[in-house]
């Protein structure tokens, strides 16, 4: 199956206004997702929020199977959460770390996750172990295998980092963690919607995800996957009257599905919007999306490699839809602003998001251009020309 590129573009209102190369920040949603979100907000205003939720019951419930289908899970293994960080936190902070427990992670790890490791290490005496990269710049699988020991409590990595095209070998990491009987938390914030993600094949116990990036959902949406077979005994750090029932004056029981990680109150229009975005990804198919994104990203890398002063900075054996580069002697933020003035959206990734990786490579920051299915080869030409003119 191939994608109908003209139609995808026509059904993305933002394409008429911007040359958007910031899908890894927040992608342009489709008209269908936008309408579904807005229609629910309107319905809330017209008939009342609770009444709108009751009327949209089936659509809201449809969120769970739609996301489950996308990632190869069961519907009762999915929880709606407002963003990837909170979804990840809900899994991570619900684990009971003891002094000496080891958390294994990777060099390219996302800053918020690493801050949480530091906090938990400080509070509990757990240890953080950063597994080195191999020659491709992805996690060294041999080193990971050797680092796992009896004290290892968790393997926790970001599938695709914020600061580049690297795609970590999530399945191979899962095999190592599963063979050792160690829990595996995968931050899939930048990967779901970009490439095929199958939680059964990957073997992760938890997976966190955001709505606004490669899934093209509304901002303020995301989800947590919690594998029933391995995590149903884990009680969430935070409970409310949706996650648990107050069964006696001094007793409560916790839900046994992944929704025990949810709040009672949430962004209902966002749930519907994200459901529609997941439906669309399922309808288009993740294999064709991934093939097209790689074609676009490789094409962009090829164009940038001919621009004088530009050095590509993406790592990895497999490179995805996030293209990063450095420009000799130029202030990246200034270049970003100059492009923005021409309605071209790119961003700058800094050590703020990934200290170990960028600092280790001697990079203060990199420019980031991230493609999605609505981008065209013409746009890539236009971007490369605008960048060259700005340098
Ligand atoms: C790898 C990774 N994890 C987590 C996040 C945070 O996602 P959110 O802003 O949805 O919490 C990001 C955001 O860029 C990211 O790149």
Q: Globular, elongated, flat, extended or rod-shaped: what is the shape?
A: globular
Please describe the biggest sheet, giving its number of strands, its sense, and whether it closes into a barrel. Answer: 7 strands, mixed
Beta-strand segment tally: 15
What value does the average pLDDT take? 97
CATH superfamily of the largest domain: Type I PLP-dependent aspartate aminotransferase-like (Major domain)
Straight-line N-to-C gap: 40 Å
User: Any ligands, ions or cofactors bound here, and which?
Assistant: pyridoxal-5'-phosphate
Low-confidence stretches: none
Q: Helix- and strand-based class?
A: alpha/beta
Number of structural domains:
2
Q: CATH architecture of the largest domain, please?
A: 3-Layer(aba) Sandwich
Estimated radius of gyration: 21 Å
Strand order of the largest sheet: 2-8-7-6-5-3-4
CATH class of the largest domain reads Alpha Beta
Number of helices, where a helix is a run of at least 4 consecutive DSSP H or I residues: 17
CATH topology of the largest domain: Aspartate Aminotransferase, domain 2
Share of β-strand residues: 15-25%
